[in-house]
Specification:
The termini are far apart. Helix content is 24%, strand content 27%. The longest helix is centred in the middle third of the chain and has 14 residues, at 158-171. The protein has seven helices and 13 strands. Belongs to the Fre/LuxG FAD/NAD(P) flavoprotein oxidoreductase family. This is FAD-binding FR-type domain-containing protein.
Length: 286
């Protein structure tokens, strides 16, 4: 992986970062402290965090660790925050489960054509302070939900799923989880190793990588668009809680696919439903 000034390759952090989650007892206490009851929200707050570590994950995706006041870092698994850069609020999913140590993990994609991305990356370096507003989003893991989890992500939508997965594995390791992670090419599955590690270490966790472009001969995933892949391989999902993270087009294509499998849309969650709501009657056939 390529590196840049102030960044390190994944796996070689420049500062001490905690394990994905701490001892199960502590994580359970931290997660349980937050109001995850359906429909509940936490008041957003703005605070200053310090860039503690930055890692290169792929050609254009970077992992960022921020540290703030643990008493102010309050969020539920699945929520997002805003980085405030030159007066602009830039949303990023929080990629770690809350563990009470004041650490926030983000997966940041650099888009050269974006003025906001260029401004953000000029500000990011180890030791820099950055303003953060958190937490937002109602697409969160519910502690009392016993259903299996069907998690469907595209690109950096994996960050939201990572937070949910870490919390679920810590609290309810026996809960079935199936993660579908889609990208154009395998190189864009920037933490594929992490998903495979979860699958190896937990018998109730399944991982299906999906790419659109054929490539490596040893790839054991699916080469297809994510909505088509789901249509061909998911036969029922009415008993699951379903989380979808990606672009509005991707999310609604997946929603339409699942609806054709069976009408079971009561337990589908996505932040897209809030910031890019679909017009009544609008679907892939309209």
């Amino acid at each position: 992986m390529r590196s840049r000034a102030g960044w390190t390759s994944a796996g070689t952090p420049t500062a001490s970062i905690p394990e994905p989650f701490m001892a199960r007892e502590l994580l359970t206490q931290c997660i349980a402290a937050y109001p995850l009851i359906e429909g509940s929200t936490m008041s957003a707050r703005t605070l200053t965090c310090t860039v503690e570590t930055m890692e290169t994950l792929s050609a254009d995706v970077y992992r960022l660790f921020l540290r703030g006041d643990p008493q102010q870092i309050l969020f539920a698994p699945g929520q997002y925050l805003m980085l405030i850069v030159q007066g602009n609020h830039l949303p990023f999913s929080i990629a770690n489960a809350p563990n009470g140590d004041g650490i926030l993990e983000l997966h940041v994609q650099y888009i050269a054509e974006s003025d906001n991305a260029r401004a953000l990356f000029r500000q990011l370096h180890v030791g820099a302070d950055i303003e953060v507003s958190l937490a937002g989003g109602e697409s969160v893991l519910e502690l009392d939900d016993p259903r299996p989890l069907l998690l469907i992500a595209a690109g950096t939508g994996f960050a939201q799923m990572k937070s949910i997965i870490e919390a679920s594995l810590a609290l309810h390791p026996e809960r079935p989880i199936h993660l579908w992670w889609a990208a154009r090419a395998r190189s864009e599955l920037y933490m594929e190793w992490q998903a495979r590690q979860w699958a190896e270490q937990n018998e109730h966790f399944s991982f299906t990588p999906v790419v659109e472009l054929p490539g490596e001969d040893d790839f054991d995933g699916v080469v297809e668009r994510i909505d088509n892949a789901l249509h061909d391989r998911v036969h029922r999902a009415d008993e699951a809680s379903i989380f979808i993270a990606g672009s509005p087009g991707m999310v609604y294509a997946v929603v339409d696919t699942l609806a054709r499998i069976e009408p079971m849309a009561k337990r589908i969650f996505s932040d897209v439903f809030s910031y890019a709501p679909r017009l009544k009657g609008q679907d892939d056939g309209s």
